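Inverse folding, one chain.
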């Protein structure tokens, strides 16, 4: 049995993936704070009930097919990839500059801090869960 078979750990991995994606989008927003016409984006929130409504395994067949470039190469199979934790959506910020830029750095810094705190909490929960599994797998008397 792998840790991927445990639903709690699978959901934690998806949560960490969502938070990582959100951090990347926030970093892009900050990098484009001076780009005319750029609107701030965010990632659609991770929802527990959406995960529970999925197939449970957390995997789906990807539409990407590996190509066989030479006759001696093995034919590939469709790769399974974890579902995207959320799609990127345009975020409505409170201010837009005259050049059409909708990035408010203060808002982005708040989002970055919240994301970091949620990431740290998820990592802590993951580490505690792994410690409990190690404790349960240890032989008695040790």
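Residues assigned per position:
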């Amino acid at each position: 049995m792998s840790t991927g078979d445990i639903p709690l750990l699978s959901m934690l991995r998806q949560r960490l993936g969502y938070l990582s994606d959100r951090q990347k989008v926030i970093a892009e927003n900050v990098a484009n704070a001076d780009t005319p016409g750029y609107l701030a984006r965010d990632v659609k929130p991770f929802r527990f009930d959406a995960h529970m409504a999925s197939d449970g395994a957390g995997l789906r067949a990807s539409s990407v097919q590996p190509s066989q470039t030479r006759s001696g190469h093995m034919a590939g199979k469709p790769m399974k990839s974890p579902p995207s934790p959320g799609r990127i959506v345009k975020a409505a910020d409170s201010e837009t500059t005259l050049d059409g830029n909708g990035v408010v750095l203060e808002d982005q810094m708040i989002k970055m801090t919240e994301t970091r705190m949620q990431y740290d909490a998820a990592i802590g929960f993951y580490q505690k869960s792994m410690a409990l599994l190690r404790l349960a797998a240890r032989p008695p008397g040790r």
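Helices lie at 7-31, 48-53, 105-137. The chain has one domain: 3-137.
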